[in-house]
From TrEMBL:
It comes from the Bacteria. Keywords: 4Fe-4S, Iron, Iron-sulfur, Metal-binding, Oxidoreductase. Residues 923-961 are annotated as: Disordered. It comes from Cognatilysobacter lacus. Gene3D superfamilies: 2.40.40.20, 3.30.200.210, 3.40.50.740, Dimethylsulfoxide Reductase, domain 2. This is Molybdopterin-dependent oxidoreductase. One of its GO terms (cellular component) is cell envelope. Its main location: other. Signal peptide: none annotated. The lineage of its organism: Bacteria, Pseudomonadati, Pseudomonadota, Gammaproteobacteria, Lysobacterales. It is found in: Cell envelope. The keyword Iron-sulfur applies.
Length: 961
């Protein structure tokens, strides 16, 4: 008997008729993707198993790249403002007119004073070009996204261990037994972290999440420590206190790889107090216990002292830097019982975490049977490791005490011997770098108008500050001034206020790329909008000209005078460069490209017309040639590069060093350094869009002092020399600033900054109350008992994705979440409307209870709230009517108004210092507040989400015929 007829099912359907590989740009992860096309349209996006970043894993954001590419909010043509700023009234113009107009504005600036251009870039991952372009223009006024995102993390790490958390280091996923996540959200390096956490869970390693809110990674952690915002450094010091008290530290590691034994001069009031004692060749000294005398601290075969006072040959007294560290953190003020209430963590929990760290580090010592040679020529039969890892992100960075908190975490790691050892935190090439990195910020212009160095860099001492002869700031954002000396990424969050105020001078043109400063990337939104639109007594805008580039009709577009439309990431070339934000991992160096999957001219806009767009990098190359940049012209005056793709191939930052490290040399046989290769991009495309070079096995750990790695790094162009990198428990760089504040040296701060510099430039990490909290406590009429923070959702990245049709199905609006006990205390029920008030204003939003938050903290998802009329969302889109931003409550200056709302060392924006009070609202409208007038422009339709149906119809039609 025959069975029933079964339909034939294709269990492995082909997603399309063509597949191309490139790099995702739906977050900063930079995963490899396969883009399947059918009849020239995207059919499907999947992860690329061959790619080293994600190994085939792809998240919801990556899959939703289809809707990003086909977003109705895409810009299609250059725009010139015809109405008032902020109204969103433009006329379309040709590219030639747009470039002529931009050139006519910029050429006179470069001729008379290049600093009248302020060029500030957002989340672009193109700093290797944009910073170089600013240098060629000659302006010191260039900044990047990190100033309001991660510079505390970068500077705190680079001035301590020559590397950093974030996307530039990783836990040893294969070997760690114990991982602490400090303030880690789900938006950066997401897929690699998920893969790594899966590895740890499979091996039974313990994961501890330190965060005021438990979401994402914290939800799968074995333990959640709901810390009060801004107290992470205090918690770290309590852990250090316990480790020191129990003598559970790795002194051998400290002496081999850090400056723990370097002698620090103790001579209060002297010009060299707190500096390292050095011999006549400038070499730091230590005291050798075996011989009872001082010797070169970097010599081997010594028995250096790490505690005690010692007389120098000239009679002065000095102590090892570790002695100063122990004196400080053994103080009872850092004992668990002393910090528990302020941190919101029981003292017994602090003591237990310290014991667990020590147990896993020292009682489970890890040895890998890999022979290696250190930088001094000593051979080692194996690699000894401490299987304790840490990873940290914006939760510690975005506070006014974040720089020192980051340094505190690195100090904790160093005491455990857990930096780049098996099982611990590991560097990703091109890190580690010398401490501090050698590149200083540009300060003067050459005869050809080019700045003497890139505008951003690392200050080594007061002499490197970008200030005038009176010590006043020279940059429009006040970065690298006495107010924020180590502002390595610049200060995007201060530029608009200062440009409006003419502080320290007026600028002519503000040029921005992918920086939504008219909405979710600004503190103090209402005032920022006012500064962008304010006019002087003559009726002219106080910021005369604004050039803006974006791929989408964000809120900031409405405030531009000239708009350059950028492609989506599937229509452009990008260089994910080792000079910028590489995709390396701890075992290999890697970089990547994006390349056009589509010719933009084949993509239609909302009116059915071909889109006339150009990549901003190519626009910069074109503009630079029109402006006569030496680096963009041949000797005969013709443009050196056809476009950005040509620039990627042929530009050399130094002989043999270009944006891409793979397949260099005329025949493509070299890597790291080599002459330009005309076929380089084609080779990348053929290799799934990336290049990767394995670090030799014997060079993968102890990179700061591993001869194999140091030699390899120099060969690759990562290091100028193969000298070991001494990790800094004690920062002489910071002490130089403290001495300047005490009146020593030729470069001293103006009197009004002396106390500030002397306080916050401590050579050992310190903790202090975040400024907003401290100043509100000082104000008699203030009562802001709650911290308010945002979390980055795993399913969206910045503002780009809360306009994405597929990702909007996950969330189209946000709520203010508060602990049930907190809700009960204030009489708030689920979905009640509440007034949330800070010293800067009030918003009215809907609240919900959630037990995954520390009781003295309220939180919401970041960047979902939109302004009506922006992003081509429907006119009544929930993002605009119910969604909201905490940004309205965050001031760009401190409550006292004395400085920017920022870290005093680096200028990092202190988004997470926000303090609020809440109360039930009396409003009757079912709409969040504040609301602004809609931006002009036709909203998009809101059709059913049936993407793909046309492909099925076309297939069925073909099969039927």
């Amino acid at each position: 008997m025959r069975g029933p007829s079964e339909p034939v099912i294709d269990t492995s359907p082909t997603p399309g008729d063509e597949v191309r590989t490139t790099t995702c740009y739906m977050c900063a992860c930079r995963c490899g993707i396969k883009v399947w096309l059918q009849d020239g349209r995207i059919r499907y996006i999947q992860g690329n198993p061959a790619h080293p970043v994600n190994k085939g894993v792809l998240c919801a954001k990556g899959s939703a790249g289809i809707m990003q590419h086909y977003s109705p909010a895409r810009l299609s043509r250059p725009l010139k403002r015809v109405g008032e700023r902020g109204k969103g009234e433009f006329e379309e113009i040709s590219w030639e007119e747009a470039l002529d107009l931009a050139t006519s504005w910029l050429a006179p600036i470069r001729e008379r004073n290049p600093d009248e251009l302020a060029f500030f870039t957002g989340r672009d991952q193109s700093q290797a070009l944009t910073g170089w372009w600013a240098q060629q223009f000659g302006t010191i006024n260039y900044a990047a996204h990190g100033g309001f995102c991660s510079v505390n993390m970068a500077a705190g790490g680079l001035y301590s261990v020559g590397g950093s958390f974030w996307e530039f280091g990783e836990p040893d996923w294969e070997h760690t037994r114990y991982l602490m996540l400090w303030g880690v959200a789900e938006d950066h390096d997401s897929n690699p972290i998920k893969l790594g956490l899966g590895t740890l869970k499979a091996r039974g390693a313990k994961i501890v999440s330190v965060n005021p809110v438990r979401t994402g990674y914290g939800a799968i952690a074995d333990e959640w420590i709901g810390i009060r915002p801004g107290t992470d450094g205090l918690f770290a010091f309590a852990l250090i206190h316990e480790l020191l008290r129990a003598d559970r530290i790795d002194l051998d590691y400290l002496v081999r790889y850090t400056n723990a034994h370097w002698l620090v001069i103790r001579d209060p009031g002297a010009a060299d107090d707190g500096l390292f004692a050095r011999d006549d060749k400038g070499r730091p000294l230590c005291f050798d216990r075996a011989r009872g005398a001082t010797f070169d601290a970097n010599a081997i075969d010594l028995q250096p002292a790490v505690v005690g006072e010692y007389a120098l040959p000239d009679g002065r007294i000095a102590v090892p830097s570790f002695h100063l560290l122990a004196e400080r953190y053994m103080d009872p003020q850092y004992a668990p019982d002393a910090v528990a209430e302020r941190c919101g963590i029981p003292a017994d929990t602090i003591r237990r975490i310290a014991r667990e760290l020590a147990e896993n580090a020292f009682d489970h010592e890890l040895r890998l049977p890999i022979a290696w040679t250190d930088a001094w020529g000593r051979e080692h039969a194996d690699m000894v490791g401490r299987p304790v890892s840490m990873h940290a992100m914006r939760g510690i960075s975005a506070h006014s005490n974040g720089f020192h908190t980051c340094r505190a975490l690195h100090t904790l790691q160093l005491l455990l011997g857990a930096v780049d050892t098996p099982g611990s935190f590991r560097y990703q090439p091109p890190f580690p770098k010398p401490i501090p990195p050698p590149n200083r910020p540009g300060r003067t212009r050459q005869a050809n108008g080019v700045l003497d160095a890139a505008p951003l860099g690392f200050v080594h001492g007061p002499e490197d500050l970008v200030v005038d002869e009176n010590g006043a700031p020279r940059r429009i954002d006040h970065a690298f001034s006495w107010s924020y000396p180590l502002a390595a990424h610049g200060m995007m969050h201060t530029v608009i206020r200062n440009a409006w105020a003419g502080d320290p001078y007026k600028i002519d043109t503000l040029m921005m790329f992918m920086a939504n400063m008219g909405w979710n990337s600004s503190m103090n939104i209402a005032e920022t909008i006012g500064w962008l639109t304010d006019k002087d007594e003559t009726g002219e805008y106080r910021i005369p000209r604004i050039i803006y580039c974006d791929a989408f009709s964000s809120e900031m577009v409405a405030y531009a005078d000239l708009v350059f439309p950028d492609p989506t990431y599937l229509e452009r070339f990008d260089s994910i460069s080792l000079l910028d934000r590489p995709i390396s991992d701890a075992d290999g160096a890697a970089d990547a490209i994006r390349h056009p999957i589509f010719d933009p001219a084949t993509q239609l806009d909302a009116q059915g017309r071909p889109r006339d767009i150009r990549g901003f990098q190519s626009v910069l190359v074109d503009l630079g040639a029109r402006l006569g940049f030496p680096g963009l012209l041949n000797d005969d005056g013709t443009p050196k590069y056809r476009d950005y793709a040509d620039y990627i191939i042929h530009h050399e930052r130094a002989p043999g060093v270009g944006l891409l490290a793979g397949w260099r040399g005329a025949d493509g046989s070299l890597e790291g350094k080599g002459a330009p290769n005309p076929a380089q991009l084609d080779t990348y495309i053929a290799n799934n869009g990336f290049w990767r070079s394995e670090i030799p096995e014997h060079a993968r750990y102890f990179k700061m002092a591993n001869r194999g790695y140091l030699d390899w790094g120099q060969t690759m162009g990562f290091l100028g020399s193969p000298q070991p990198i001494v990790l800094q428990l004690y920062s002489e760089t910071l002490q130089k600033f403290r001495l300047a504040a005490q009146g020593h040296g030729p470069n001293v701060p103006p009197p009004e900054h002396c106390d500030r510099v002397a306080t916050y430039f401590d050579p050992l990490p310190i903790w202090y109350e975040p400024f907003e909290q401290a100043q509100n406590l000082d104000a008699a009429d203030s009562d802001f008992p709650l911290s308010a923070i945002t979390q980055r959702p795993m399913f969206m990245y910045h503002a780009w994705h809360s306009q994405n049709a597929w990702l909007r199905q996950i969330a189209t609006r946000n709520y203010l979440y508060l602990h049930p006990d907190t809700a009960a205390r204030y009489g708030i029920k689920d979905e009640d409307w509440v007034d949330v008030t800070s010293h800067n204003g009030t918003i009215t939003v809907q609240a919900r209870s959630a037990s995954n938050v520390q009781p003295d903290t309220v939180w919401t998802w970041n960047a979902i709230g939109k302004r009506r009329g922006a992003w081509k969302l429907p006119k009544d889109a929930p993002e605009a009517t119910k969604g909201f931003l905490l940004n309205h409550l965050i001031s760009d200056i401190t409550p006292k108004g004395d400085y920017a709302n920022a870290d005093p060392v680096t200028g990092q924006a202190a988004w997470f210092d926000l303090r609020v009070r809440i109360a039930p609202s009396t409003q009757t409208d079912d709409v969040s507040q504040p609301q602004f007038a809609p931006i002009a422009g036709a909203p998009a339709d809101d059709p059913p989400l049936r993407y793909g149906a046309e492909f099925r119809r076309e297939r069925d039609t073909r099969e039927a015929s």
